[in-house]
Amino acid sequence: MHPIDPVKKAAAEAAAQLVQDGMRVGLGTGSTVAYLLPALAARGLRDLRCVATSVETAEQASALGLPVEPFDTLEELDIAIDGADQVTPEGWIVKGGGGAHTREKAVAAAARRFVVIVGDNKLVDALHAPVPLELLAFGLAATLHRLQDLGPVEVRAGWPPSPDNGVIADYRGEVGDPAALAARLAAAVGVVDHGIFPPSMTHDVLIAHGEHDVEHRILQPGG
User: Fold this and answer.
1) Per-residue exposure over 159-196, b if at least 16 CB sit within 10 Å of its own CB, e if not
2) How far apart are CA 79 and CA 107, in angstroms?
3) DSSP state of 42
4) What are the start-end ranges of the H helices in the chain?
5) Active site residue 104
């Protein structure tokens, strides 16, 4: 991670301060979360229970001394923290640039408080392509054929499978109404999940405008 990105680092360090001892914590995936992990480890909290959304995050967290366990027995998390590729003023989010959006969404949905950390370069007026997809490898050609009615979908060439062995692809058509597109993608047979996160899922967005300027937007009070 060289050179250090001070904007990502600022957002991640602000998010680390939201974690309290004894919490069950969901750890996201990506370049901004890579700054979160050492910031969280440096706090020296002793009674955390962490789950990771990717093998990469699990390995990085464990190397820093953060306790990571399988997401098998925890029914609820106190907080989950993750980055994003796009964030609208209303709180619509696109995630999945790293191909782990299905697990990221599962962890976010289990959290009482889902916190998104971004630099201000991720702010957009409206969601746009690409929208990441995870597809079943079984029947992939048929799935891609069905998706043609929605718009162009491209499998990421040379991209490794998802953490659960799904095929990573991107929807490259018009987004328009994100709720309508999310519903149509979710209903398509063969689509494991898509990277559109609704505003109702996110509680806080921490936006770093500079090294010492982090804006805290609260989307869901009391999360």
Assistant:
1) eeebbeebbbbbbeeebeebeebbebbeebebbbbbbb
2) 9
3) T
4) 6-16, 33-41, 55-63, 101-110, 140-147, 178-187
5) yes
Looking at residue 1, what is its pLDDT?
45
Nearest Cα residue to 105 out of 132, 123, 125, 137 = 132
Q: What token pair was written down for 10?
A: 């600022």
**Catalytic residue of the set 56, 75, 76, 104:** 104
The tens digit of pLDDT for each residue in 10-34 reads 999 999 999 999 999 999 999 999 9
67-111 tens-digit pLDDT: 999 999 899 999 999 999 999 999 999 999 999 999 999 999 999
CA 125 vs. chain centroid, Å, equals 19
